[in-house]
From TrEMBL:
The keyword Magnesium applies. InterPro entries: DNA/RNA_pol_sf, GrpII_Intron_Splice-Mob/Def, Reverse_transcriptase_msDNA, RT_dom. Its EC number is 2.7.7.49. This is RNA-directed DNA polymerase. The keyword S-adenosyl-L-methionine does not apply. Signal peptide: none annotated. GO terms for biological process: defense response to virus; DNA damage response. Pfam families: RVT_1 (PF00078). PROSITE patterns: RT_POL (PS50878). It comes from Streptococcus oralis subsp. dentisani. Belongs to the bacterial reverse transcriptase family. Residues 21-231 form the Reverse transcriptase domain. One of its GO terms (molecular function) is RNA binding.
Amino acid sequence: MLDIPVFCDLEELREKIGTNKKFFYRVLYSDDKLYKEITIPKRNGGSRVLNVPNTALKGMQRWILDNILYKVQSDPSATGFIPMKSIVLNASTHLKKKYILKMDIRDFFPSIDFHKVRSLFFELGYNKDVATALANICVFRGQLPQGSPTSPYLANLVCRDLDKRIYNLCRKYKLSYTRYADDITISGNSKIFWIKGIVEEIICSYQFSLNNEKTIFLKPGDRKRVTGIIVNEKLSVPRSVTRNLRKEIYFIKKFGLEEHLDKNSFAGSKEQYIAHLYGVASYIKMVELTKGIFFINQLNSIFSGNEQLETGKNLHIEFASIDWTIFDE
């Protein structure tokens, strides 16, 4: 039996979450003003839009995440945004494999709508009113918002059956399977390209679709990268990532941050740029500890304490919005 709180009605739910009645019902009636739209520039061009809840709503969502969602186990194949799991674990599953198939689920978070989220809360045993309220707290404009603390783990729980079906298929043929958010990776030591069609059928049966432009087949002799990490012989960061970060640090030291940003035409704010640099350094640290610490120390020597503090407030946005394919170039 799940160790999750029980709510008889909405008032008990509100009291457990710890919010006042006026704000609670404002959330349930889906007030768009409770979210702020943030545009995060991608290094390879374009941008990603996040809808970030305000502090009070984020607190409600965080309570649901800590007290309900984290008490429910996701499928072991899911590796993204789960305590004690990371891109390193995701990549290590496919280390030294001869063949790798990488697929991307199109519009992953927007494809998880209110009905899927409410159905999940029904499955956890909540009555109609409570399940509906919990779903309304977690969705924005009828779908999971990128930028909300509950969205990644809710997505993992919604995809439990999907993950189980693909995992069982892969296990039957001695293949490895992981899913990091919308990134699906299958690997093995025999040709695996035939499995793509079957996996796509499974994905479509759960009302998702593949972004076929991002499907990648890797064979012996290819440089193999999974969630931005090279997995040929050992886990390592692509040289282009460390080279680019080293170059950014050099130019900041030479010209100063403001002048470098003007010359670089970075689309985001100064705070977003700093958060991006720390995000890349932290990513390097996860894979190659000594090298990552070196870059973080370099950044700390450049930026003031106030800038580091502001970066800490924004860094979770950087990680939540990372498009790992930028490291696959």
